[in-house]
């Protein structure tokens, strides 16, 4: 049987080749479906990153799982829409149950609520829209939102889409651990208040994309309470740490936020298009997004308004027609049980610890950041390699390119403290310590070969 590990973790085609392969006139007549499926499976869909490959360490890899694939097939075949209760009461109840399970996994109080969305970007946008309306109403003058420079770019994109200027997002330099510093944040808030500005929200990140750093959520929550600000936690990747024994303390911290982004398509191993936004007070989502607030001059949607204890999830977010994303999570948890996902999270943590120990012990490798939620960064420094920072940076990129060219692994770079480093995300349950060891040896070998080439 063919598995993800049988092929390379990455394949790419030249744009001209792909245009010749796929750019064609609109077909007037049909073709054989079996042949078309074979064409896509063999010639098109493999061209990209194979995120479920055990030696794919790029970005935040995901494995998916077979019940989730079947859930997508089933919900699509039934045209399931968990929007209005009238349209999809069964799908809506599945989503509400899956949300309750996620809250339990993360240790959130039962009164929290929310909905499934496409991913972390829309989850951040949805939460911050509620924060904007709750704190600012319709007046955005002088508004200020705060995060660190390590926050995800979707925060800046959300600010833009919410009608705020780029100058209204204050991205502060992180501390030495790449975390948002509460003292520096408080000083900036005080200065902005003194200048007559209107701070309204803070974004804390649990699991930054570069290093997996965790902002001090509890301290930031205290600060936000003192100033009367909304605390949004972007835990797209790192909130899943709360499933593990090591991450149990995070559960209390997450519960102190006003809203939370969580991406099951990351560390809950779901297919893409499975994000989630959760809020302390679901009525604040409803105040921003409820359909009745946005009705125009037509009564077309009035018959679908919720009655009595019915729930219309399209009142809680920006989408009306919504796919049944929750069924993937529901069927996965029913099939495997929560304990399997807890073990998988622990496995990813164990792999990053193992990688860090190997890197620390190897004379050719330097750890750039400690393991953070299954993510670590390091440099390749072969004997005799140049010491000047630009040359070291170029070497890391050369090593990444050379590793990728072998077809054996995918290891990309990021920037930490202004320096180029190699980055490894180890959360794939199919990855073994042997995979880690083999890839690190490949890094060492390609690094030495790169240094032997004439400059």
Blueprint (SSEs and pairs):
Layout: H1 15-22, H2 33-44, H3 66-77, H4 89-106, E1 113-117, H5 120-136, E2 143-148, H6 153-161, E3 169-172, H7 182-194, E4 198-205, H8 217-227, E5 230-234, H9 248-254, E6 259-262, E7 275-279, H10 282-289, H11 291-294, H12 326-336, H13 338-361, E8 365-372, E9 375-380, H14 389-406, E10 413-416, E11 419-425, H15 433-452
Parallel strand pairs: 2-3, 2-4, 4-5, 5-6
Antiparallel strand pairs: 1-7, 6-7, 8-9, 9-11, 10-11
Provide structural commentary.
The chain has 15 helices and 11 strands. It has about 450 residues and is α/β, with parallel strands linked by helices. The protein has 2 domains: about 70-335, Aspartate Aminotransferase, domain 2; about 340-450, Aspartate Aminotransferase, domain 1, CATH 3.90.1150. The chain has a 7-stranded mixed sheet, sandwiched between helices. The chain has a 4-stranded antiparallel sheet with strand order 8-9-11-10. The protein is globular and about 70 Å long.
